[in-house]
Amino acid sequence: MADRPRPFDGIDELLDRLNRQIETAAKSWETQVDQRSQLDLSMSGAETSLDLADEGDEFVVTIDVPGYENDDLELRLSGQTLAVSGQREHSQEFGGDEENYIRRERETKSFSRQLRLPEPVDDDAVKASVNNGILTIRLPKREPDDEARSIDID
């Protein structure tokens, strides 16, 4: 019977290898989350998709806002933080009384996103437009100030 293999031989080695793989995956995931969280300052889970692109002389933010009108959206720029929110009101005039509905999935929706921009932008030249349910915000980068200034010492 001494020649018979033991069923648990090698389990410790397998568990150590599995543990190392999980630690490697967790470190990779933390790095990805940290990089994203440096820009995304939203407090809750984002239901509205957002893209931020660097197009050389400007940043372009694209946000899916299907069903929102221009008046439903609010944009604010404070320093390097862009805040975008939307509130869509449900109207009784579309579809009649509540008791007429057999199924009703469309409802009042709102969203709020905050995004830290990687560089300062020219807040006077920011432009935004909505086309086919897509909000596009163009944020021209601020020109670097090459002018040297003298600083007085007290």
Can you summarize this structure?
Pfam families: HSP20. The chain has 154 residues and is of the alpha+beta class. 18% of the residues lie in helices and 30% in strands.
* Strand order in space, largest sheet: 1-2-7-6
Strand content: 25-35%
What number of domains?
2
CATH topology of the largest domain: Immunoglobulin-like
Helix fraction, binned, reads 10-25%
Distance between the termini: 91 Å
Beta strands, count? 7
Radius of gyration: 26 Å
Structural class: alpha+beta
Ranges where pLDDT stays below 50 over 5 or more residues in a row are: 33-37
* Mean pLDDT over the residues: 78
Largest sheet: 4 strands, antiparallel
CATH class of the largest domain: Mainly Beta
* CATH architecture verdict of the largest domain: Sandwich
Question: Secondary-structure element sequence?
Answer: HEEEEEEE
Helices, by number, come to: 1
Global geometry? flat
Pfam families: HSP20
Family: Belongs to the small heat shock protein (HSP20) family.
Protein name: Heat shock protein Hsp20
Domain SHSP: 41-154
Q: What does this protein structure show overall?
A:
With 154 residues, this protein is of the alpha+beta class. It folds into two domains: 10-39; 41-140, Sandwich (Immunoglobulin-like). It is built from one helix and seven strands, in the order H-E-E-E-E-E-E-E. The strands form two sheets. It has a four-stranded antiparallel β-sheet with strand order 1-2-7-6, with no helix packed on it. Strand 3 and strand 4 (81-88) form a beta hairpin. The longest helix has 27 residues, at 11-37. The N and C termini lie far apart (91 Å). The model is unreliable at 33-37 (pLDDT under 50).
